[in-house]
């Protein structure tokens, strides 16, 4: 597999300058032993629009954060108009005209758009700065989103999400005494309506002809094909393809992003038809599929991150909690909703089973210790004893304890909320095996995951798009290509 | 406050000025109601001299509350504020009259240590509530070492200053107005104020725009220390002596004043004018209870009840949690 292709020159404007605006050679990023970005080469000409494509965790945001100075590269060379750059920070990036619209909104909600504009422009100060800042942001908004109706002096928390996104995009295109050379837009259209999206795309094109380059990261591939000169495809922390968008089709692009072929180690299950479903959840939304799950079944929720999978999972859990079927929930966000940081492994493991451990109204110490040590052994939690504080364990082992908490309980349905995030491969394989064997014993799993390969463990999956379960795939039909095709869907959102 | 009274067509046209009004309007209303009750009971209090007496002890609290406000603006809290003011009264009563240079050196050292606290909290990601709680005992211990029993002597010029009778308005009102105006200009109106409030609400966004939140925190903590020193100096002038245990109530009264004045613990949302008025309201609540002849055993509890009433009023008036 050839990892890095020579970047193709943009169609027609290749000869614009001797040096590209941005040139990266072998730039990589490691967090300790974890490699977030392989050595990549990336070029950007000064009037070019580049689309960056890839699934979650492919390294797009890491690459862009390095360019914006928010994250420091651990190796490789970075050149700005042919001059090597050693020290690079957010302030330096600003000074050289590189702006970034981050994926998660980064406006201060307690300030007005004018005040938020001031934060990025050190030049806006002295008497009357507020008026000048207000005029600056309003002018940018008028240019990009005519008819926006946003008051620059109204506090941002009073604006809708779409309006905030507009303000943030417009802010990136304002300039005072510092130039604008390049604007990075990370999922800018996810919160915008149709009209605003069209306005933005038109503006990106106009800006490029004025010499402001743009890098567009989006899951809506049509937008990439509509405005970009080049599409750069990333998979697993590396750039796998750089293509001119001229003549490139949507399906070719999808194919490029999903070329990881996960080895399918699934044994054919010769189950007779699944029994009566114990999960049966429907919503009021049109075109939203009914989620069904029977005992012994592993049902997956797939799709791009943030398309309503987690919300649906919680919704189902909430409606079933307190019902006749016992349920358990394994949180993916260990820190905030999983572990009790000050407690031991045993206490963390048994908290879901306190009811069954009661002897005469009090919790039996003996019963709970037996339960905890049985399950800690079963999941091979690597710890000196079950009295070890949970926070002294590695992330993977903490996650095992959370699994054990759910599996040790009487739950018939276990909800998994993307629990394998940031867990090492060995642990993953152990847990997959355990999930399959528990399913064979008749437990039902509803599993939301952002990792495509994991879905091959499922019997049936629902692919989510824009808050709805739109496609259902079963058994052999569960494969990376079809999942990606279903998650990108048709149309422009 | 009418800096942005532009006519706006959007849906928030009524809600927004109203919510802005509750920030300053509610403590003002509470203050006026209390004054009205006091003047109704004792009409003689409505005079230059009466105002001086009523608000004399509110002034150190105003500065202590502003010091607290700066810390709350960053999303932190300073539980050592009252003990620190006590320490300042001890240092001032012992050194300021005879060895002013020593006193000034100690003040500078204390401001530096406040900055150091900001540094510590930021770099080690410690909760400010824990750090400052521990610190309050350190300040108290230092104060007792400097001045084991209440006493000492305030310098004559300091006592003379707090006893000064300026034209038109009594001194406490002038000082409160000056403090409110200065803090309003710096925090709410200036261009750097926008960055400071932004750093309290969304430090990541401010950091990504190329600012150092560490530097911001260190500077804001130092400024907070400076204001607390002013509070201690004024209190020394008023009481003409030092006492390590004189101001423990300032900590929570200061927090109360910030919240009463429209601030929020989430960081980034503070109103200097509201804080000053809030501090005066809380200080006056004590006097009001004396005028109403509430027995002294009930006064602390009643003061808390008044605070509760006013804060509950803020919630009832449609303050949305953000």
TrEMBL record, chain A:
A Pfam entry, by short name: ABC_tran
Domain ABC transporter: 22-491
Single Gene Ontology MF annotation: ATP binding
Keyword Lipoprotein: no
Key word ATP-binding present: yes
InterPro entries named in the record: AAA+_ATPase, ABC_carbohydrate_import_ATPase, ABC_transporter-like_ATP-bd, ABC_transporter-like_CS, P-loop_NTPase
Keyword tags: ATP-binding, Nucleotide-binding, Repeat, Sugar transport, Transport
Family named by the database record: Belongs to the ABC transporter superfamily.
Database matches in PANTHER family: CARBOHYDRATE TRANSPORT ATP-BINDING PROTEIN MG119-RELATED, GALACTOFURANOSE TRANSPORTER ATP-BINDING PROTEIN YTFR
Protein name, per record: Sugar ABC transporter ATP-binding protein
Organism this protein belongs to: Jiella pelagia
Organismal lineage: Bacteria, Pseudomonadati, Pseudomonadota, Alphaproteobacteria, Hyphomicrobiales
